[in-house]
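note to self: the first set is below, dont mix up w the second
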Amino acid sequence: MGRARRARRIAAKAAFGGTVTAAGAGAAGAAAYGLLRAEAVIARRVVGTPFDTAPEDSGTYGHGFGDPINLLVLGDSSARGMGADDRWQTVGAIIANAVAAFTGRPVELTNVAVVGAQSSDLDGQIDQALERVAEPAVAIVMVGANDVTHRTSRATAVRHLAMAVRRLRDSDAEVVVGTCPDLGTVRPLPQPLRLVARRYSRDLAAAQTVAVVEQGGRTVSLGDLIGPDFQQRPTIMFSQDQFHPSPAGYARAASALLPSVLDALGHRTPDTDKAPDRRRGESVGPVAEAAVRAVRDPGSEVSGTDLDGTEVGRRGRWAVLRRRRRQPVPETGGDVVAEEQTPAPEGHDAEESVAQQS
């Protein structure tokens, strides 16, 4: 079964309350996760020193005229900033500083993410966030890795995420979701655990995209965004525990999310009004197909659109895939510059071919 079809299937079961296990149905899935569980014990022994806490980054960023822009951050340890040295190095803080610089208005950041959180924890985080912020402008959600490592049903995880996006949209917040990272990039994980983790995390990311877009949000594929640099610069892109991103890794993630946050705020970016450019790998098509391409091309944004005046086609919701140019971020967010990305190949990648044969 191809990844697009799996993504549609998982999202559909999430919408109708299905319970597909994280590994899929049948003895093969049970055997795969039995192996995953055994090798996870080995992985925990080789992962570096864990952190005691994450920096508290909630507060006001930037200066300017007008009322502050209310920015929410929800999710897991990556949203919390586990591995950052101080409050200025988290994804939320980097984006808040950048939004303040681009808009000329202060930004009030409220971070309710929790280390170790799964998608099922988002509802409680939203309760807490909306008690503190009555009218959020944009909510950034980063979640999924713990759903994979805890063997949560993908349909269950996606259902909780979809409900969270709907609640946030009902509060008039724009929603930008950084999809599940590719856990196959975590080098302390031994093979074949790493290959299994890669397949399941990519499948979850694709299904997350389908569900989020259908609920009125937009996604940015984080995938293996910092993975390619890990082989060449492992001490720079990953923190001391070899699992969470370092400040440089968070800056890379923030630079991918920032254009989508700015666009959600109505702040024009170089790509705002441009038609999708096929030469850059951009396209309009069914959301499941866009989701699969985004998984293979970290940094890509997927959002809902219409085609010939209709939002839904024969194969589901229409979506636009954009490969947004990364915006430069302030120096407090790390040494990140704008860069042009190379389009991903149209064909399946090596992992997808292996997954289809399994």
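second set (the one i keep forgetting abt)
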Amino acid sequence: MSQPGPIALSCGEPAGIGPEIAVKAWQALRDSCPFFWIGDARHLPAGTPVTEIASPAAAAAACADSFPVLPLTFGGGTAKGTADPDNAAGVIESIETAVQLVRSGKASAVCTAPIHKKALIDGAGFAYPGHTEFLAALAGRERVVMMLASDQLRVVPATIHIALSDVPAALTPELLRETIGITAAGLRDQFGIASPRIAVAGLNPHAGEGGAMGREELDWINALIVQMQGEGLNVTGPHPADTMFHAAARARYDAAVCMYHDQALIPIKTLDFDRGVNVTLGLPFIRTSPDHGTAFDIAGTGQANPSSLIQALKLAQTMAAGT
């Protein structure tokens, strides 16, 4: 297995916990997982030993003894707990720089710290619903897929941030086919699973129970899965969601494709709340992120748990080594 290059970590919202957990992650990993932080060092915790680097190539050597920073100059302040819109342009530049460096081969993967969308809208007219959509636009991809991954479970929601009442209309055969296909390709290309096993959850309780609790499974979900099986994909379902996530069931698949946000996120957050990682599949580069937000209420207090970011960096390194 080849040794991957350093990981580019975008700074995220500087008034949140991103800078603090970045330094805690470096303290835990040091040179075992080289990465560099892209941002304004004024936002880092006081006393952090910083080495400003001119290029990613210098990150690995710096990591053993100091926190490597690829410096940007932000226009706003350094207060914690409340986002300063004057920092918005810098936050966006940090993400853009990370993507440019990984696409040019100077970094092996992008890891992103949490952003605050309202601050980006207020300060820089940010035109995207979130990180994932912005990264897709930077990569020129119309459709990408969000995976939440841990050592115990990988889940992919086909529909994400919409009301539950809107799910049946949004969940089309085309959307589910694309989601399953991108998931299978990501498991092969980025996770190194030659023949990925994908379990698809039903939309309705008991996967519709023969039409007694909903007809989507009978009307088209069953047929789509059979069709994709005929195309060579190792996909099964639709399975009742309430029996998909116990240990014996999880052993039978590499990822679960779920129909809506909570159907996917409740089991992984229950099984491994602090160590879940957000992975974007369908991009032409590796992108991971901790599975939490900016946590303004504890920013700057030293209480932030870096576990999810540590796992995001380690997973990015493992994925990069296998590609």
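remember for set 2: The chain has two domains: 1-144+282-323, 152-271.
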